Every structure is written in structure tokens, then in C-alpha cells.
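Chain A, query sequence.
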Amino acid sequence: MPDNIPQNVRIDLGNHSVAWSPCTIGVNLEIGSNCSIGSLAHIGRNVVMGDDCRIQGGAYIADGCILGNQVFVGPNATLLNDRYPPSGNKALWQPINVHDGAVIGGGATVVPGCDIGKNSVLAAGAVLTKHLPEEEVWSGNPAKFMMQRSEYESKR
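Chain A, predicted structure.
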């Protein structure tokens, strides 16, 4: 890598939110307070992030996705928006909506149009192909129900 590209530099995004270089932040990002975006993350255009979101390094958030408050996206997780890539037609895109308190584990993939319910958990490496209801934990490929969030919390 060239010497003139700064690494691990803190980027102030306002409202006590930060990103760590190198990362990509698309235009029209609407970001809440106290958020953190890790290095090598890609945040697409017209993304909305609520308060207290944590996006780990290498995560990919496609254009138009919406993240509620206190959402955690693990390293190298992928949130897609184009079910038939590359469609080249934004009218066909189906951005993902991640509700408050949801957790997406490292390396998980969420296919376009899938919503992730409030306080739900998608396990590391899982592939979500349909809506994940609130307060549930899913894992696998394709992801399936594992347990309730309350049981998950009791194991932590």
C-alpha cells in the first residue's frame, strides 16, 4: 500500500460518531449519535444508521439499507440490496431494514429484502434468506430458528 494513504486514522462524523480509515462512506449517510464504523467497512449511499450502532471492520452495507438504534454488525458481514445482480435498475433493489437492538454476526450474509426484527440475532456465518422475527436467534445456511433472544442472553 502506498505510504501516503493514512491507516487507522479516526474520522469524526459528528454527534460523537466515528469511522476508522480506510473505509468507504457513501453520500447521504444519515448517522445517529455514538456510532462507530470500523476500518475496511463499506457503507453505501443513502444508508440510515440510528444511535449507538457498531459496524465492525470489513462489513458491507449496501445502498439504501436502514439500521435502527443499537444495531451491531460483525466483521465481514454483508447486507445486500440487489436480488439479481447486477440488475443496474435501482427500482428493483430491496434494501434491508435492521430493527433496534439487532445483532448480525461476523461473516453473516443478508440477502436483499430481508428484514431483521427488533432484538434479534443472526449468528456468525449465517445466510438469511427470509425475514427474521423479533427476539429470535437464527443460524445456518439458510438461517433457521435456534432459540429465543432471552435464552441467548442467559448463555452470555
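The longest helix spans residues 149-155. The CA atoms of residues 16 and 32 lie 9 Å apart.
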